[in-house]
Amino acid sequence: MRTLLVRVLLGCAGLSFVSAVGIAILARPDSAASPVLRLVAGELTLQVPVLIATHLFLQWHGTDWRRAFQLVWNPRAWAMGIGVGLAAVLIGYPLQYLAAEGLRWLGREPKSQEAVLLLAEAGWGGRATIGLMVVVGAAFAEEVLFRGIFYQSIRDTGRPRLAVWVTAVLFGAIHFNLAAFVPLALFGAALAWLYERTGTLGAGIAAHATFNLVGFIAAVFPEKFLPSP
């Protein structure tokens, strides 16, 4: 499994480099590409290499998605995942708010993620595109990478607790949002627990997609979720 991890990382790095060339072209100041297009291209820089590299290396090792990640029809596990995703919203959002207030108290204004800012200005076509990438694409690709590859690889060395917290910290850090780091790291730990409890990556994907969906709806309709000044 460790060999698989190294190969997936190398494959992802190579494919990400190629994708980054295209992103750099789109992100030039004189580029005619819309902010939504640049955001989608940026998301694909992570998602496409992860999915392609994982597929190729699963084939190389004589297995497939269904057997490697137990992606089977399991409504109970998926329902449990949705419940975990909603619980993460109820716990994580207040924690993120407190962290943001703490940063302001320290004189540092927390930054919103680019997708959240774009949703406030994009038309419905752009919002639908961002929603698809964030709710479906990001949830699937990130669970495959963090719980399917990283977590399993470290756990299989005989260090299950280390696997939980290493992948949780990486999951929180990769979003590059200081105020959301602790809530996302805790959510990452919960996703690892959910994977062990249900035995299927589908539960984590359902939880992750639910969490992202609530965030997407809150960003599209902030007046429904945020108190009026």
Counted up, domains total 1
**Mean pLDDT figure:** 82
Order of helices and strands: HHHHHHHHHH
Number of strands: 0
Distance between the termini: 53 Å
Strand content: under 5%
Summarize the structure.
The chain has helices at about 1-25, 35-60, 65-70, 75-105, 115-120, 125-155, 160-175, 180-200, 200-220, 220-225. It has about 230 residues and is mainly α.
Description:
This protein has 229 residues and is mainly α. The protein has one domain. The protein has 10 helices and no strands. It is globular.
Indicate the topology.
Blueprint: H1 2-26, H2 35-60, H3 65-69, H4 75-105, H5 114-121, H6 124-155, H7 160-173, H8 181-198, H9 201-220, H10 222-225
Helix pairs in contact: 1-2, 1-6, 2-6, 4-8, 4-9, 6-7, 6-9, 7-8, 8-9
